[in-house]
Amino acid sequence: IKLSLSVQELSIFDRNELSNIKQKAQSKETNLKKNARENKIGRNLSNMGDIRKENTNKTDEEFIFEHSHKNRVSKAFVTYPSVFVCVTLVFAFICSILMSGAIDLEGQSDRDFLVWDDLRVKRNDALTEATEKVREEDLGDQETPLQTELQGNWLLYIMYKSSTSNVMTPSNLAVMRQVEQVITSNKRYSNVCVATSSSDRTCEEPLTNLPWFSQYASPTQAEIDQVIKTKAEDDFTKNKIYFDRGFTEQSPVAKWSRAMFQFALPLQDGDKRYRSSTDDFRDQKDYYIDFLTDVEPDVMDLEPSDMDIYFFSWDWWSVSYDRMVMKDFNWVIVSFLFVLTYMMIHTWSVALPIIGMVEVMSAYPVAYFVYRFIMQVQMFNSMSLLSVFIILGIAADDIFVFMDAWKQSAHYACLQADFELRFAYVYRRAAKAMFVTTITTFGAFMATSISEIAPIAAFGLYSAALILSNYCLVITFFPACVVLRHRLMEWNEKRKAKRTGKTAEGDKKEEPRETEMPMYTNVAGTQKAATEGKDDDVRVPATVSAGEVDITSEKPVPKTTEESRVEKFFAGKYMEFIIKGRFIIIGCFVVWWIVALILATNISPLTRQENFFPDDHDITIAFDAIEDTYHIGETDGII
Length: 639
What we know:
By secondary structure, this protein is mainly alpha-helical. Helices cover 56% and strands 8% of the residues.
């Protein structure tokens, strides 16, 4: 509304009247803009889903019918579903056999987590190789004396932490003696300990403070304190390594104490005698790890109530890590049950979730086939097993996408008269949506594969292969199972009808079960519901085409399957919120990205060994104690 008043005409209006006119005009203009904006939003909402902007003059039925075409793929699935199921299962079974015979988790080593192209690693490897060649040339045909080549990393720490301020008490000392007795009396200890000389295989004494009290069978507290004080005064630098950093010459009292056991190669296992430390090193190391596995539970059983005992070595760190990973892997059962239960609730079916879990399990061996024989990667460690938690979520999501597309296809009358046409629409729609999510996730894991740390790169490659294999199975095996299930339910309904005397041509028809997929043709707004008395969608049997629907019948027609509350929410209120608040949402994300980029500039390399265990784990406590608690000695190898 425009006001075009001359200066002369203004005199006939009172100022207040003029103000009222302006306010009414502005209010009317605001209402017109608001209505126009709401109409625009309404048009946008009506165009969401399967109706595009250029087809606003078409109904859902017309658009779906024009964009649903049969093809060879849909015909193959509908005609030969059992072939797809059998072929995929047989291939997965063959891949399982190959996978079971090729995976060797025991073949992992400490070198796996090194950057092999790093200059320091190359120099260390060159030094190790050169040292071995020189040793072989010096020895010639001779054999290295048994247990004379000290292994730097083969150092076993037994650490004691008292609940009081003093760990060296008579009762604790008795426990320490029992622990040392358990270790040295083990049948494998004499084959891995450090020999006294090349001609004498008698084991050297471990690095411990227990020999200080050898003259006492059961020393008193005063005797223990006097011996420790004397040792601190005689050679504090040498003797301090057995205690924590609170142990000083002026105050020779410690809360922590420790003993260290060194080991050497080559060893002799029964009749088999190894020539040197590098001769079948893996077998010799396995013998040493078996020794640690034997004595660890016996040592920990001796732990008293007032003192904690910690069992630590670098090889035991690897054993504990693998144990922790395998323990975490047990949560796969819980994850499977949770995903299976949720899928049952979402699909209102028992068979489909079980089929989905079979598809997930089949993806594992198929992925290994791609990983091992196509990508030509041989490393497979315990970290790769954890990808099962990733694929469970992704596979469940893909199944939900397919099943939602299947259910939503029941809303379109043009698809109900022809099952193959309906399947073609569902398959095309679901496969495209799943492909987008698959290719992005696949790319993310392939990016992980460029890591210079081999286990991380292997994890990325195997996870990428697993994502790809899952997609291939979810667009072949699972759709074929859905078709078979549909055919089975049709056959079951016909069998029931024959048994009860109700044929397909009879006046009475048995209603499908709630778990069965809706197989009725929807005709919107053609008839008023007999019970409600208002406009509603109706559905008619899918055996007739949409053009042959008889809407003049006086018999009540069942209602159509309505959209779920979730679908209504996202297609209605949520979409309206997104459209109205699009600029605010984009602004919030821009601010978030800016803050994230600023925080990312503060990322720096680790300043100490990364902790792979929980803070309260014995390995974590023992490792931190070696670095931060004890006085450092030559045997610690810490710079």
